[in-house]
Structures are given as structure tokens and as C-alpha cells.
User: Which sequence fits this backbone?
């Protein structure tokens, strides 16, 4: 069996290897992604987003257990932009895997993003395709949800869950308003804390203000209170998500297709851009120029970034 | 006077117009950036980063007042990825401008990022150049500091200030460890809250663990407690920042240069990538293909994103 067949048959080791290759930007990964592509499009994708410290991981792990009880296989992608600095992601994966250690039906992977020039949105999207092709029926993406990439990632999920906690500080009102429109379901986690009812009320008011209308659907966002560490409220969260899934599988059937279009765009434009950059940087060297010397010229004000970039574009694409 | 001369002479209206054009990705902005480039490289750039709700804006506004008292002009760029959804950024600018309304020496601008395919890091970097050329002596960039872009932006400042508050939840330990290495100064804001001393102690321990060493300098990060809304501790923060500036202007003289190199790389590679993509998308249409039809083919599984992207690269750059 080649690696494509292995992944499609659900082989965990082959799947993990490909995800690592995507993260490391190994070129051969693209060929495998290409062959896997016909096997994608079946998974239900849930985006979980919220500030650090709101308890997203605990919540997602509990939800995974719910889906396993319902007989579904689960893939979890945790997008953790802080991980390049410490390797914390890998450690985190190990700790979290222990919660599901006797269950091969749950696959967890953190994206140890390298802090390079962009690409986070695309690699996440590629990794969703891999887990999808590997037969995971439910794929959960966790993001911190405040960066541009993270919002875009959340936005390309079928159902987006926004997680907050009571008393997140005075800026929270603005933040809530800002990300309101991408939330299908709102979770107030650590609901045993003071102020939980207030937070729920605030959310309800914001939803009432119709901040959401711009998305063009008539889904009324649901609010769920949870205590993830005590597994409280998880069933309700599960039901809310399933209700949203049913909503666009029956009422708003266009949405599933729109999500596939969004993913296709991210993957196509991202690949185009990265490949073009790779070729152009190779051409710089092939032309006898050195990248470092170019940067030095810019720093020394002998030229500027915009002129040099335009010269290369004109020469190679003119 | 043309717009370049206007900006270099410190004209606020011309500066604001160019920043808006950069945000709107208007092609002519690049020509102006090119002409402004020789006038850049003088400003001292400070990055402020921290989760939503920690009080970054209040802190930055207070610090701006300090720098004004010291006779310096100040530019503030607030990177707010949530703003595309509500237009909240513009409102926020107006409220904040009122705090400095009688002072033309302070310029505030929020980046209403459009959520397009990347580009946040580059536009921020371009905007720093504009404020620099416009004669702002101190430029403060505010970011939420958890997204990939935000970390990169903070990383390209001369001095990076990480802001936290007491009791930010149980995940904070991991987060701190993750972003530890980019912090030159740590601020515990809302220091009147319970647990402030604990947070300071935790930070001191983390610094002691030498998590920072990978950056390759021997600066020992400073910790400052503040209450921004009462203007408490701001002088100490100001002194800490000035101490760090003195450090690399005298002890670690390479750093100023490294920061310029980083900015040059972001601007050069970013421009190259964006321009290449623009030309390639134009070529798709020129070749008689439609972008939307291509995406449709991918969704319908008649092809895949990787194959189509490669075909275009081969045709145009082969």
C-alpha cells in the first residue's frame, strides 16, 4: 500500500507523517494532497475559537468524547501560534492524547506554526483535507480566534463555536461585537464563576441587536453554559452543534457547498502564492543575485523593497 | 507640494490618506511608499502585545502622553483583526483621538484588516515606514499578540512589551512560556487586582528559567506593574522602555540593524508575493479562464487546487 491508500484506509501513522510534512512544508506533501483530494468533502468541520485561558482544549476534548459515544470518529487540529517558541505544542498533544489513549477513533494534532511568511490558513485547510480523507467524520479546529488567520480558519468551518468566560475584562464587549457575526454557537465556559448569568445576558442582547445578519442566513445563535473541567453542559453543547448541522443540511443547504468553496479558494490561492514565491526566490539565485545582498541593499537605502520586487516581477512575469 | 513632500513635512491629512490607501490595497500607494523609503529608519518602534481585555489601549495612550512630555512625536498603530466585522476600529480611533485631541503630535490609526489572504504583517510594516517618514519619533504598534501575524509584527519592533493582568486563567502559564522569548518588558496591568504579586512572581520565575536565551542577547527582561486607567506605574514603564532602548543603542548595537533587516524582508517578500499573485490572477482571466469556474471545478472534484495552481505556475513561470 502506498501512503495515499494507507491514509484513506485510516492508518494513523501515515496520517501523522503527512501532517508533519505539511507543517514542515515538504514539497512532496503536495503530491499526496493532490491524490487525497477526491476522497475529501465528507467530514463535518467545527471551529472552536476564543481567547487563551477560556478552556477551549478541555471543552473540545469533552466534545470529542460525546461524538465518540455517538459512534463518530474525531480529528482535532489545535492551531497554537505560540508553539514555535517552546515546542509546547508537542508536549500538549501528548498530555491530551492521554485523555483518549485507549481510543484510536480520536486523532489530535497541534500546528506548530513556524512563524514564516503566512501560510497558517492554508496548512490548516490542507490538514482538514487529510483528516477528512482519512475518514474522520467530525473534525474540530481550535484557534485563539483573534488573529486574522484564526478568524479566517474559523470562518471556513461548517459550525463556528465562540468560547468565552465570565468577567473577561472591560474590552470584552468590543471583542464580542467584533466576532459576533462568525459565531453560530456561543459558549460561556467556567459557568460556575461569578457573572456567568451577566455574560449570557450580554450575549443575548448582542444577538438580539442582529449583529449577525451580515452572514446572510437566518440562524439564531445558541448560547450554552459549560464547566468543561467537570464535564457539565457538554451534552447541551453537543445538541446545539447537531442542531446547527441539521439546520444547514435541511434549511440552508447552500452552506455546505459554500464552505467547500471557501476551502477550495484558500487552498488554490495559497498554493499559487507559495509556489510563485518559491519559483521567484529560486530565480533570484539563478540570476546570480543573492537574497541576503538584496536585503542589505534595502537596509543601506541603495534601493527599496518595492522597486526590487517590481524588477523581479517584470523580469520573470513581464 | 506632492503627497510625498507633504508626508515628509508631517502633514497629518496626507499621512492619513496614504495609510487608508495601504489598508485598501490601492496600487498607487506602492509608488508613494517607494519614494518615502529613503526617509525611513529613524523612528523608535515599540510593540505592545497581550490578550484582549488586558488594557493595552489605555496603557499605550498613557505612554504616548509620557513621550509627548519628553518632547517626542508619537504614532500609534492598533492592529485589530476583529474590526472588519463591525467597523469598530474607526469608532475606536475617534474615542481615542479625543484623549489627545489638542495634540497634533500624536497620530492614532487602527488597521481595519480585511480578512483577505494574508498581508497584515506587510501592511503594518508599510505603515510603520509611513509614520517614520512623516517624522514620528516614537511609533507604538498594538497587537493582540496571539496570532501568527501579530507575533511576527511584535517581533519586528525595537522593544517588545508583553501585557498581562492578574488571574488570566489556568492556560496563562503555557501562553507566557510560549511568548516569553519575544518579551523585552513585561507589564502586569490592573495591578490593584488580587493576585498581582503572584503574577509578577510567576513571570520572574519564568525569566529566571532562561526561556529567553534563544534570542541571542543578554538583556534581562524587566517587569512593571501598572494601573493604566489611573495612570499609575506609567513613568516606570517609560523608564524601562528607555532603558531597553539605551541597552541596544550602546551594548547591543547590532539589534537596530537586525530590526531594519527584518522589516526589509517582510516588505520585500510580501510585495513580491502579492504582486506575483496579482499578475497570475490577471493572467488566468487573460487566458480566457474564469477564477470562479476554476473554484467550481475544484468543488466538483473535476480537478484539485494543487493541480490547477501548478498548471498556472508552469504556464506563466515555466
Assistant:
Amino acid at each position: 500500500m502506498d501512503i495515499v491508500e494507507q491514509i484513506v484506509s485510516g492508518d494513523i501513522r501515515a496520517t501523522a507523517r503527512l501532517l508533519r510534512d505539511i507543517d514542515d512544508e515538504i514539497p512532496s506533501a503536495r503530491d499526496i494532497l493532490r491524490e487525497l483530494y477526491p476522497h475529501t468533502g465528507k467530514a463535518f468541520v467545527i471551529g472552536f475559537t476564543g481567547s487563551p485561558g477560556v478552556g477551549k482544549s478541555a471543552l473540545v476534548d469533552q466534545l470529542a468524547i460525546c461524538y465518540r459515544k455517538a459512534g463518530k470518529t474525531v480529528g482535532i487540529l489545535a492551531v497554537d501560534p505560540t508553539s514555535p517558541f517552546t515546542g509546547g505544542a508537542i508536549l500538549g498533544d501528548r498530555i491530551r492524547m492521554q485523555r483518549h489513549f485507549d481510543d484510536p477513533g480520536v486523532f489530535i494534532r497541534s500546528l506548530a506554526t513556524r512563524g514564516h511568511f503566512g501560510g497558517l490558513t492554508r496548512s490548516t485547510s490542507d490538514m482538514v483535507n487529510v483528516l477528512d480523507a482519512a475518514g474522520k467524520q467530525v473534525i474540530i479546529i481550535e484557534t485563539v480566534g483573534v488573529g486574522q488567520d484564526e478568524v479566517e480558519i474559523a470562518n471556513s468551518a461548517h459550525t463556528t463555536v465562540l468560547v468565552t468566560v465570565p468577567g473577561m475584562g472591560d474590552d470584552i464587549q468590543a471583542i464580542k461585537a467584533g466576532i459576533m457575526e462568525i459565531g453560530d454557537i456561543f459558549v460561556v465556559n467556567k459557568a460556575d464563576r461569578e457573572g456567568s448569568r451577566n455574560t449570557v445576558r450580554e450575549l443575548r442582547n448582542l444577538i438580539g441587536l442582529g449583529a449577525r445578519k451580515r452572514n446572510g442566513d437566518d440562524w439564531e445563535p445558541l448560547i450554552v453554559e459549560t464547566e468543561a473541567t467537570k464535564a457539565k453542559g457538554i451534552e447541551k453543547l453537543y445538541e446545539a452543534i447537531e442542531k446547527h448541522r441539521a439546520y444547514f443540511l435541511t434549511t440552508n443547504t447552500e452552506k455546505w457547498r459554500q464552505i467547500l468553496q471557501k476551502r477550495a479558494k484558500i487552498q488554490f490561492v495559497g498554493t499559487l502564492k507559495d509556489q510563485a514565491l518559491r519559483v521567484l526566490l529560486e530565480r533570484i539565485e539563478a540570476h546570480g543575485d543573492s537574497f541576503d545582498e538584496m536585503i542589505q541593499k534595502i537596509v543601506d537605502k541603495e534601493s527599496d523593497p518595492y522597486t526590487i520586487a517590481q524588477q523581479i516581477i517584470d523580469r520573470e512575469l513581464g
Remarks:
- Strands of chain A lie at 44-49, 74-79, 106-111, 138-143, 159-164, 185-188, 222-225.
- The first helix of chain A runs from residue 3 to 8.
- The first strand of chain A starts at residue 44 and ends at 49.
